[in-house]
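During the no-cost extension, the postdoctoral fellow (Dr. R.K.) reprocessed legacy sequence entries with the updated structure-token encoder. One reprocessed record is reproduced below for audit purposes.
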Amino acid sequence: MIVKDFVIIGGGIAGLSAIKSIREEDTESSVLWITDEDRLPYKRTKINKNIVSGFGKEDFALIDHDWLVNNHVELLYDRVENIDVELHELAFKHRGHLRYKKLILATGNKPNQLLVDNLPEEKIFHVHTARQVENIIRFSKKSIKYLIIGAGVEGVETADQLIKMNKEVVLIDRNNTVIKRFLNQKYSDFLVESIKKSGIEFYPNITELNFSESESGKSILTFDDKKVEFDALILTLGYTPNTDLAVNAELKCNTGILVNEYLQTSNEDIYAAGDVAEHVTGQITGLWHAAERQGYIAGKNAMGKEIIFKLEPFRMKTEVFDEFYFSVKPQGDEDEVVTEEKDTVVRDIYIKDGKVLALFMKNDGARAKLYQQAIMEQWEFDKFKNEIPL
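Re-encoded structure tokens follow.
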């Protein structure tokens, strides 16, 4: 039976980062990278932001075929069905079995579902994979009315794209505002105002949904005595770590795959990184740069290093409705908040012991990387003012 030195399951940034980490020090060991999608691994955060323009199969690819060849990486398009941790053996949907010496699980997450009686599957869409977004693009040629459930980052970005296509868009959420995970009430209110100005109907605090069909066969969702007719329903309800393989392999899991500070699972030869990993703090990151860093450390530690993964502040940025939003949410123990405004730029800077620890910002996207650097390096406020003046 074929044996691979390193096997990485998952075609996202955590998987790629793990491979790059391994190849920095070892160019000879065999590396197998597995994706269950129909294309080269790609930047997932791009797809729902390009519904208007559309995209080709390799437009957002993280690497190309030459990179795979030059780095001696075998990419396999298949689904792993089972992990036998005793035999170090993987069973594939299409290609039999093989064995691994070290395994890195970067299986990401899966969309949360909506439980509404009688809701027809053919009317439900997601924006998690490129194929799913391509389905939305195809369906848009014959549909007008869209209902988006979930006003997080993906829901708002998707609504922005659809309204630019002159669709009728309704956005609803169970929370009292939008992008609640990353924005405070002030900046959420800014965004809600822009959403409504664009022509999108927004309904917060929605908890009960009922589906029905009109006499003419139109799909209708009812909430708070409001009836919304729709051609397509897009679910952006957040994600749950994709732990199916790990659970079946009897690795320790909670919401995600439990890992120690070295990103090692309950099995010493298996590591987990990215959106699927649940850290010793109980946190699951669910963010691009965090997954990238975790993959890098998991790769190093799979080679025998002992690098501790430290969670960094969560950063969010998005550009919607011709506005730019950036946030690193405060932890609540800051001493001071400084608010500054100039033209359309607004920023709230959170300071503790003279250092900048958190920030909300609107409409200064050209300097987003500087803002991020300031937070990650905890600049003194005086330095912040000098380096990023307003």
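Residues 251 and 267 are 7 Å apart (CA to CA). The first strand starts at residue 3 and ends at 9. The remaining legacy entries will be reprocessed before the final report is submitted.
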